[in-house]
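Per reviewer request, we include the raw input and output of the structure prediction for the construct analysed in the revised manuscript.
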Amino acid sequence: MSVFTKTALLAGAAAIAATTALAGSHSEENPAVKARKAHMQLYAHNIGILAGMARGNTEYDADAAVAAASNLADLSHINEASYWVPGTDSESIDGTRALPALFENLDDVQAKIDQLNAASVALSETAGNGLEAVQAGLGPVGQVCGSCHDDYRVPNN
């Protein structure tokens, strides 16, 4: 390999490394915010599977319904305390929709998490019993999610 080729390869590698480091420094997100967003995405993914069936957008599939409902129940059992770090609200940092009120009302947030747990467990116990069971069980899950979002999340524009 010629000196020119080696120099070009090293320069290219250095440019890639510098670009990656620069991009990484601009895209770093608070670990607590990152964790809670990931958790919420998992909730949304599984609710989406069930909602697709409930709305008739996808065929009811008992195995898929049970899996998604069980995932919701499992997710609702995860201790989220480390996600809700003071100073990670929408007025303190960019990249989150958590309102400051959430951190002032952690007992209410925990009560809503407990309600979500109960609704998710109930749904997981009946999701394999047919489309009507999914529709009935999904309502309480959506109500709890919505109540927390209404009280503690910046609305979509």
